[in-house]
Amino acid sequence: MEGAGGGNHASSSCWGVETISLHADADMEGPDVSPPLHLSTTYFTGNEDGLVYSRAHTMTRWRTEKVLGDLEGGYAVLYPTGMSTVTAVLANVKPLVVYIATGGYFGVHEAIHHYQAMVQAYAPDPSVKACRLVELYNGELEKLAETVRKEEQERAEKEARDKEDKQRAEAEAAKAAEAAKAAELAASPRKNKKAKKGAKKDEDKKEEKLEIKFVNVTSRPRTLIWLETPKNPTSELQDIQYYCELAKTIGALVVVDSTFATPVLQKPLSLGADFVVHSCSKFLGGHSDLTAGLVVVKSEYHQNVLRSERNSLGGALGNLEAWLLLRSLRTLSVRMKQHSKAATKVAKWLESQIGVEGSHVTKVWHPTLKSNEKDYQICQKQMQGKGPGVLSVELDTTENTLKFQKALILFSDATSLGGCESLIDYRARWDPHVPPTLLRVSIGLESPKDLIADMKQALESLDKETPPQPAAAAVAAQQHDAESSPGGSRFGLRKKKK
User: Fold this and answer.
1) Which of 6, 10, 14 is nearest to 68 (CA)?
2) 56-94 pLDDT tens trace
3) Could you give the CA distance from residue 276 to residue 257 in angstroms, rounded to a whole number?
4) Cβ of 361: how many Cβ atoms within 10 Å?
5) Predicted confidence (pLDDT) at residue 241 exceeds the cutoff of 60
6) Measured between alpha carbons, how far is 375 from 131 in angstroms, rounded to an integer?
7) How is residue 104 annotated by DSSP?
């Protein structure tokens, strides 16, 4: 089974994501209904499955890659973390230019900066940047594409004119030669016979000639367009098809970080992307109990190249994480639909609080809201009108933002996202570019009605003054807060007062 783990889409191409998640790997091994976990790191030499060593091959990882590849409509390669997928793509493409928008997950920008520093160290001229990092929205990409289009149009027009001139000249020369030959033949019948034989030989030589075209085999795309859509933490969207068309014009490759969407909500390869990357620790894993990363490409050949590079660079995913991820994929569709539906309800309710006296809400970010017109339009086209399970909310002051977060009961104060439980993260704690009044909210699988009620009581508590407490009560309050913090009571839930 060498090379297993994605590719034969004949059986699953007509299935929905729900069926693919459950049956894409069904014929890969044994009679087990629930996939077994393989822990062995080495295998008997010459076994029929082609297994050698677990860094390179494992049945558990193959099965998980097969399901993930079929879900995205491509060929999947798994890595130990989401960040390792960024370095894997950079190592594979070795770009000289990277177009990426400001914002999004700060870790991706850090990884690209590390790549820049690494290639710069080997640059022949230290004064020249070995890899340029370009703001996606500054217009340079569109100008470059327009310049290429104009050059191609001018080249095509020139080639057409040159071809017409050549055909006209050849026609005139042939006509003149024919007239001269006719005059010569009319003067000598014996030469007429020899001329016919010579003409036949010339025709035979023309047929024997082979048309040889030389291709510059060293030329390859060295420009990356890096998209993150939906974007962390605001769930803003980027038009994948638009940027793929620009990329095709200038000969660039497109990477789409589709972590927030998963294949349930969007499929970037079908829109023209060359790579799809995911942090599987989020919605694909869905239970806050594994770290993994995923790269999906269009061809089995490219998959094998990435696997070979992964084996050499050492970024292989362990069997336990691969098995946990495969378990999670079985319920991916039902989970994502609930995440999306609940997040939309919560986002719309929060937006309805803007302008309401005492609510303190000033802005809500989610692509299903018509107030975010650009994102809303892209969402309808690119994600079938369904938003991710993540939204962001801004309050009027930093103080109210932190008080609101602390007053919530059903939302754990924790980073990451995409799990069954709802989380709320003060992003400015990790990323200084995020406004200090913004909270990222990962909507879990709880009842949206209960989540909204919790948010309502938290907002109402902002204007309530906390009465002065005696020393004993202050100590009790500190203990209460400690139990409510990460590492305190389970899920960070506050104990109800008796």
Assistant:
1) 6
2) 999 999 999 999 999 999 999 999 999 999 999 999 999
3) 6
4) 21
5) yes
6) 31
7) S
